[in-house]
Structure formats: structure tokens, C-alpha cells
Design a protein that fits this description.
Layout lengths: L1 H17 L10 H19 L13 H4 L4 H10 L15 H13 L5
Helix pairs in contact: 4-5
């Protein structure tokens, strides 16, 4: 009986590690406001204040629809070496970058 309990206790952490990670929650409403401000100010400075393009390409839904979401998230999170597009991983988590992409594909919030 002791051996069974010992083995169960020893294997429990390994079983916990084998579980798929829980989904990351959407940013809180307060954090969403911060991210919207960041996108408008920082992304807008290169991609145009209405996201129609400038130094960087358009971020309008019609310009992004044919691009894979994973690629867009990776571009925001990790930047594009050899281009002016910097990585934003210091300011956004990967799930927040995905949230930004979702908003861009829907038409970024006007307010």
C-alpha cells in the first residue's frame, strides 16, 4: 500500500505536466484600454494614424485577411529583422499580440 501511494505521489507531478496548458484569458478591460492606446500611438506612427499605411503597410482588415494569423502575431511579438518593424515582446504578451491581430482583422476600435 505504501509503495502504491509513493508511486502515485511521485507520478502526480509528471501527470500534471502532461496536461495541455489552459487557454490564456483575454486582457482585462483596463489592459485592453492600454493596448488600444499603444496600438493607436505606436503602431499608428508607422502604419498611419488610421492604419491605412505609411512607413509600414496598411493594417486595415482587407489588407490583412489573406495573411495567416500566426504570422501576424509573430510579426508583432518578434518584429521583422531587417525592417523597421521592432519586436513588441517587451510590451505585449504573445496572447495580447493575438488579441491585437483579432481586433485589427475586425477593424481596430475607433475609441
Amino acid at each position: 500500500m505504501r509503495l502504491t501511494l509513493f508511486l502515485a505521489a511521485a507520478l502526480l507531478p509528471a501527470a500534471a505536466l502532461a496536461q495541455p496548458p489552459a487557454s490564456v484569458a483575454a486582457p482585462t478591460p483596463e489592459r485592453q484600454k492600454e493596448i488600444v492606446h499603444l496600438v493607436r500611438q505606436d503602431c499608428g506612427s508607422c502604419h498611419g494614424m488610421n492604419f491605412g499605411g505609411g512607413l509600414g503597410p496598411s493594417l486595415k482588415p482587407e489588407a490583412l485577411r489573406d495573411k495567416p494569423v500566426e504570422s501576424l502575431v509573430a510579426t508583432i511579438y518578434g518584429g521583422r529583422p531587417g525592417t523597421p518593424m521592432p519586436p513588441w515582446h517587451r510590451f505585449l504578451s504573445e496572447s495580447e499580440a493575438e488579441w491585437v491581430v483579432e481586433r485589427l482583422l475586425q477593424g481596430f476600435p475607433a475609441e
